[in-house]
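Thread: quick sanity check before group meeting

JM: Hey all, I'm pulling together slides for Thursday and realized we never actually wrote out the predicted structure for the chain we discussed last week. Dropping the sequence here so it's in one place. If anyone has concerns about the input, flag it before I start.
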Amino acid sequence: MSDRTLSPTARDDRPLVIAHRGASGYLPEHTQEAKALAYAMGADFLEQDVVASRDDVLIVSHDIHLDRVSDVAARFPNRRRDDGRFYVRDFDLAELKTLNIQERLNDDASGPAFPGRFPLGQGQFRIVTLAQEIELVQGLNRSTGRNVGIYPEIKAPAWHHQEGVDVAAMLLQMLAHYGYESKQDPVFVQCFDAQELKRLRQDLGCQLRLIQLVGENSWAESATDYDQMRTAQGLAKLARVADGIGPWIDQLYTLAEIDGQPVSSGLVRMAHDAGLQVHPYTFRADAFPQGFDSYNELVCWFVYELKIDGLFTDFTDLTLDILRSSR
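JM (edit): ok, ran it. Output follows.
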C-alpha cells in the first residue's frame, strides 16, 4: 500500500487531488456514482456543494438551481419561480429524490456543457444528501483502509439566509456529528462569501480548515471584492480567518506578450507568503485554458512551476497518472 492511501497529508510530496463534483468528467456531477468512481480512482478529497431543501435537508448539488442538471421542468413544470428557474429550496427531499440527475447543460440549456461526456438522457441518477455522501466516504474509508477527505462548499449563504435557513450552522452541526471538528480532520470547508467565512470562524467557532474561494467580481457570487482580496494586503487580512484560497485557474497566470507562454501572475507566491494554501479550480482534460496545448502540460506547469498545494479536477485518474509519471 503506497503512502498516498494513508492520509490526505501524507502523499509523497505531491499536491492534493480534489475530485471536482466527483468523477464529473465521466459521470453526472455530484451523483453517488460519480463520487464512488472518483474515490476508486484515488482522489484525496471529494467535493460537496451544499444547498438546503424546503424541509431543511442539506443536499449535494452544484448550485441553488435544478434546471441545468435534472429533469425537474418535465416532472414539476409549475414549480418555476418568476425568473424561470427551478430552485432546490422549493422542493422537499422526497420530491427531489424523484428527479433524474443528468449531465450539466450549457447556460442557454441548448445542449450539454461538455458534449463528449456521459450522454444526456441515459441512465438513472439521483440526488444525494450530504449525510448520505459522508456515510459513503466514511464507509469506503473503513473498508479500504484509506482516509479520503471531504471538501464541502457552502453555496450562496446570503441567499439562503434570505430564504430563512442557516446552511453554515447546519453544515457545522452535521460535520461535528460525523466527527469532523478540528484542523487535524480530513475536511476543508470552502465558500465564495468572505463575510460568511469570517462568521464561520469568529461567530460559529469553526475550528476546521477554511478555504476562501476566489472568483471574479463580475460573477456576482457574493458581495466580496475579489480584486482587493488578490493583493498582498488582502491576502494578509484573509489569513487571519482562512487557511487557504481556491482561486480560478485563470487568475494564477497571464500570457507573455512576446511568445504567448504562461507566466505566473504572482498570486500563488503572495498567498504562500501570507501562509495560505492554494487549491485552484478547475483542471479539465477536455477544456484546458488558453496557453496550454495538452492536459499534461497544464498540470505539470501549475504543479512544478507555480507549486500549488492542491487542485480541483474533473479527471482524477488522468491527473494522478501525470503526477506519478512526472516525478
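AS: nice. Confidence is low (pLDDT under 50) at residues 1-10. DSSP finds twelve helices and twelve strands in the chain.
JM: adding both to the slides.
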